[in-house]
Amino acid sequence: METKYYRNFSIIAHIDHGKSTLADRLLEFTRTIPEREMQEQVLDSMDLEQERGITIKSHAVRIEYKARDNQKYILNLIDTPGHVDFSYEVSRSLAACEGVLLLVDASQGIEAQTISNLYLALDNNLTIIPILTKIDLPAARVQLIGEELADILDVDLDSIILTSAKENIGTEDVLEAIVNRVPFPIGDNNKPLKALIFDSIYNQYRGVIAYTRIVEGQLKAGDFITFFSNKNSYEVDEVGYLRLKMIPGTSLNAGEVGYIIANVKRIEDAKVGDTITLRDNPADCALPGYREFKPMVYSGLYPTDNDDFENLREALAKLKLNDASLYYEPESSLALGFGFRCGFLGMLHLDIVKERLSREYDLSLIATVPNVKYRVVLKNNEEVTLDNPALLPDAVNIDHIEEPYVDAEIVTNSEFIGNVMQLLIQRRGEYKTTDYLDPQKVIIYFRAPLSEIIFDFFDRLKSITKGYASLDYKFAGYRSANLVKLDILINGEPVDALSTIVHNDQSYFWGQKLCSKLKELIPRQLFEVRIQAAIGARIVSKSKVHALRKNVTAKCYGGDITRKRKLLEQQKAGKKRMKQVGKVSLPQEAFFAILEVER
User: Fold this and answer.
1) Beta 327-333 vs 337-344: how paired, if at all?
2) Contact present, 289 and 281 (Cβ < 8 Å)
């Protein structure tokens, strides 16, 4: 089929705005999937995706559609993940398209991630088709939200398509808009090959399967390809297109979307965003936009049973095969034994990996408090980056510490501006500006330390705005700050897994709250447990868990009081010896005590 009958598009939306449901209707209307195989959220193949109502792993599917003009078109839907943690994958999926469907819930309105995804689409010069979804809901504000959307995009209100995927309203209108508004891909089969990898998965029998968009040139089985990022070369075994299942083909031409199998053994060799070219006729330069994955949040994962260490290593290796953004390396802790220091794209990514390890590999894990990556400049001008607070050098050797900052935006109702500003001040945020979408809705732009955003910031934001707020952010670089390491000592011994880096102005408050929280969480022992928060050699707060007292004098009824005193003295001496050799067993909740501290 000629290239002019191809359309490559994506769907972008805020979480829970109906993206997966609309995709279901498009596949159902075009009979892309047999009716017996159809299910809700068919593109969300993971249990976790369907339970949480979000897209974690992007998918691609080829749709054949006969339009109202009786012409047959090939529509390539490249689905995108639905969370800020995966914004890089979203940008690469958009780079493989010429147009996007921008979905906005008619009852919830424009949210922070709607704005963020819109900017990504504009950066890629894509044609944007605005769609209002869920118009059948009683709370839908079709006219008001439609005017907001038309104002932001600077389009006529009539150009916005009204749909309800649940009621199957407007599905054909969406397909016609894709055919008529999205431009067809432009590319030359005779030019040197340039293919963009927008996703990749690992198959234990066939190796890495790269999902690609051919921008220029042509690719067929038997060709030798090279990846721009690592210069490795492989022979192509098979090419084809995606229809939820892989359908082998003879070749992939300019403008087409499909898959490539080439005996690539490691998913790190087929990175998302990389460019593929031919070994014997290479392109001059790579496609723009590629960058390495950089974990933003770090946490230690330890098996509750030390015998499961090798099982955890094997499970992480298997997850890594399908998730190139997951980083891990072995580490040990005096409190927890042997485990792994893992890097994640964000808190959701951490939560998903931990849940998958528990479900798919039957592992019981302890996760240490998540933290960000700090940059430490020593007095000899040496620079050290660390993701584990326990590894922070001695304070006497440190010139200054730098922490990562993010540029963020909050979309909320104007009545909550004061509450949001107060929260930003508490979290060391720097206010930039405010834009009004309409008299009731605003976007607040600000800059804040990433460490203040990743914990309970979003929960607090939802609480103070009665649920009417959404958050989006992106990395903005490192800045120097007055930071110190706060250690937690249990009976004089530091627990490295509870160490954290905090701002000096908040260190006393943090120490006091942590000691109080741990006092509630640590079970009482037969000996007294001292809990202390320390900065270097200075104790900033302390608490204690009182010992359980055994009634040893129960048998001493009657007689001289000295008999009871003698027994109590013996018990006291025994408890003192026990305290010297006894070990305190910390529950899992203790390692997340920092997350529960009210700021």
Assistant:
1) antiparallel
2) no
| Local confidence band at 580 (pLDDT 50, 70, 90 cut-offs) | very low
| Nearest-angstrom CA–CA distance, 416 and 437 | 15
Strands 538-545 and 529-535, sheet pairing: antiparallel
Residue-range domains of the chain with CATH = 3-181 (3.40.50.300), 194-278 (2.40.30.10), 297-368 (3.30.70.870), 375-481 (3.30.70.240), 484-596 (3.30.70.2570)
In whole angstroms, what is the distance from residue 458 CA to residue 420 CA?
A: 11
- Tell me how far apart the alpha carbons of residues 439 and 136 are, in angstroms, rounded to a whole number: 25
- Of 188-192, 308-312, 486-490, 586-590, the one with minimum mean pLDDT is 586-590
Contact 203, 55 (CB under 8 A): no
Q: What is the DSSP string of 276-303?
A: EEESSS--SSPPTT-------EEEEEEE
Split at pLDDT 50, 70, 90, the class of 595 is low
**pLDDT surpassing 50 at residue 582:** no
Count CA atoms within 13 Å of residue 450 on its CB side.
Answer: 25
Q: State the Cα–Cα distance between residues 474 and 346, nearest whole angstrom.
A: 11
pLDDT value for 124 = 83
Between CA 53 and CA 47 the distance in angstroms is 10
Q: How far is Cα 488 from Cα 533, in angstroms, rounded to an integer?
A: 5
Residue 476 near residue 406, CB atoms below 8 Å: yes
Nearest one of 175, 191, 178, 199 to 258, comparing CA atoms: 199
Q: What is the C-alpha to C-alpha distance for residues 444 and 415, in angstroms, rounded to an integer?
A: 13
Give the per-residue pLDDT at 581. Answer: 44
Q: Would you give the DSSP letter of residue 371?
A: B
Rounded CA separation 170/174 (Å): 6
Tell me which residue has tokens 């009621």: 167
> Which of 91, 64, 97 has the alpha carbon at shortest distance from 78?
97
Burial 306-321 (b: 16+ CB within 10 A, else e): eebbeebbebbebbbb
Tokens of 49: 């995706």
Burial of 90 (0-12, 13-18, 19+ CB in 10 A): buried
Q: Give dist(CA 582, CA 82) in Å, integer.
A: 49
pLDDT band at 166 (very low <50, low <70, confident <90, very high): confident
Bridge partners (DSSP) of residue 442 are 412, 436
Among 18-27, 34-43, 487-496, the least confident range: 34-43
Whether the Cβ atoms of residue 561 and residue 485 lie closer than 8 Å to each other: no
Instruction: Report the alpha-carbon distance of residue 55 to residue 167 in Å, rounded.
Output: 22
Q: How far apart are CA 28 and CA 46, in angstroms?
A: 20
Residues 97 and 3: their CA atoms lie apart, in Å, by 14
Whose CA is closest to 516, among 416, 417, 437, 593? 593
Cα→Cα distances 51→39, 44, 46, 188, 327, Å? 14, 10, 9, 43, 25
pLDDT band at 57 (very low <50, low <70, confident <90, very high): low
Closest to 365 (Cα-Cα) out of 52, 531, 592, 51: 592
pLDDT at 402 over 90: yes
Structure token digits, residue 272: 């998302």
Decide: 147 and 1 in contact? Cβ < 8 Å: no
